[in-house]
Amino acid sequence: MTDIRSHHISPGFDAELEHLTGHFQRLGGMVAQQLQDSLRALVTTDRAQAENVCARDQEINERDVAIDRLCMSILARRQPAANDLRLVTSVGHATFDLERIGDEAAKIARICVEMFDAGISPPVVDQIQAAGEMVLDMLRDVLDAFARLDSVAAYEVARRDALLDVSCEEIIEATLQELIAREQNLAGSLRMLWIPRALERIGDHSCNLAEHVVFVAKGEYVRHMSLRRMAKRVQS
Amino acid sequence: MTTVERDNELSSTVGKPLLDGADDVKFSVRKLAVHYAELQAVHDVNLDIGQRQVTALIGPSGCGKSTFLRCLNRMNDIIASCVVQGEVHLDQKDIYAPQVDVVALRARVGMVFQKPNPFPKSIYDNIAYGPRLHGQADSPSALDELVETSLRRAGLWAEVKDLLHRPATSLSGGQQQRLCIARTIAIQPEVILMDEPCSALDPIATARIEALIGELKCDYTIVIVTHSMQQASRVSDRTAYFHLGRLLEVNATDKIFMAPEHPGTEDYITGRIG
Question: Which domains does chain B have, with CATH numbers?
Answer without folding.
Answer: 3-269 (3.40.50.300)
